[in-house]
Amino acid sequence: MRRIFLSVVGILPFFVFEQNTAKRKLKPSDVYRLQSIGDPQISPECNWIAYTLTTIDSVLNKRNTDHWMVSWDGKQSVQLTNTSGPYDEAAAVFSPYGKQIAFVSNHTEDPDRNINSDIFVMDAQPNAIAKKLTNWKGTDNNPVWSSNSKMLAYASSTSERYTAYEEYYLTLINLVSGEPKILSKNLDRPISNFKFSKDGTCIAVLVADDRESFLEQFNIKSGVLTKIVGGKKSFSALQAQSANNWLVIMSEPQLPNKIYAMENGNTRRLTKHQEDFVAPLELATTEGFTSKAKDGNIVSSILLRPSNIPASQKLPTSFYIHGGPTAQDEYGIDLTRQMLAAAGYAVVGVNYRGSSGCGWEYSKTISADWGNKEVKDITSAVDFIIEKGIANPVSWKFVDGVMEEL
Question: Contact at 8 Å (CB) between 381 and 342?
Fold first, then answer.
């Protein structure tokens, strides 16, 4: 008996091991077991990484997102938030000293039926209690810390209800008083990429306005807005370098993205990677024009003309219409339009009603009224280029959103 027992024990571990390593085919239901990781953020001391972890409960038909931290050496993992309700959390950002985290969440009773997300702040440690900072019934998001950790800048929706034509105000909140201050209420233009200056006296933003995007800054104390740099350019990134200096990415009608230093309002180009790309090319020229729709609306558009073709020569013309509709055609380089121009087309982009860059009323006026005002705006641009002798007055067709001369 003793020998039989020992032999069974001897083979048991092998039997269990074989069971534990048995594999099976992937099933659709396995997708619900997958935990999704996103939005990693490194702490200022570079020893912790905050991130989001999303899990799914297929039985309750519920998705849940919480904030976690993992140490840089991978030895410690900390769950910061543990949402028990139907809430998701996102956009975590460390304070400059790494002691706190700001994030965005909607803690209303039924968050799927409204846009009421708020800004929360909590200590960057386990079991800390998150404090809700904002109370606007619309959307508050994209928190950005001041250099002294005493203020947060964030974007607040202009509306309490969902709309595809939303614009956002740049808003500032003092973490001690808890009082919000809207800085861009009178601007009436889309803002993005807002950053505090290194000395904390102002906030710089990228502003979209009538085919341009440019760099401006708000004085925090007075609220005065000052343009730093503009013109027929397109900006897409912004970082603070020192008190009055900024780092930006900028493109022009005939030159792709470059990194610039902005020093006391003056631009200094830092990167020159695009010279080899541009050097052998004859790129189209870009100009702006305006037209008037039949109902009197003034419409801003952009025209690309092929290189080395006389201005008096009539051209086959392509209307390349942007989607969104909350977007705008800008003076930055557009390789798709440049490619059409290289094939001999005049190319037109129209910032029809519904586009951004001309005010919130201009953008939202086509809501639930599609195929009306924006069509009038586009046809006014067609009439303009025919009247100016750019294109022949012939029939037109739409191809995948592009209106072409037949």
Answer: no
CB-based contact 156:139 (threshold 8 Å): yes
pTM equals 0.79
What CA–CA distance (Å, rounded) separates 167 from 392? 38
Nearest to 136 by CA among 119, 112, 121, 122: 119
**CB of 271 closer than 8 Å to CB of 258:** yes
- From 288, 290, 170, 172, select the one nearest 232 (Cα to Cα): 288
Task: Give the chain's domains with CATH numbers.
Answer: 31-276 (2.120.10.30), 282-405 (3.40.50.1820)
Going by C-alpha positions, the residue among 210, 260, 218, 201 that lies closest to residue 235 is 260
Instruction: Give me 307's structure tokens.
Output: 């290189």
- Strand 346-351 and strand 317-320: the pairing is parallel
How far apart CA 385 and CA 383 sit, in angstroms, is 6
Cα 180 from Cα 226, distance rounded (Å):
21
Distance CA 102, CA 116 (A): 17
317: number of Cβ within 10 Å: 22
pLDDT digits (tens, 9 = 90+) for 65-102: 888 888 888 888 889 887 766 677 888 899 998 899 99
The Cα–Cα gap between 325 and 363 comes to 8
Contact (CB, 8 A) for 306 and 284: yes
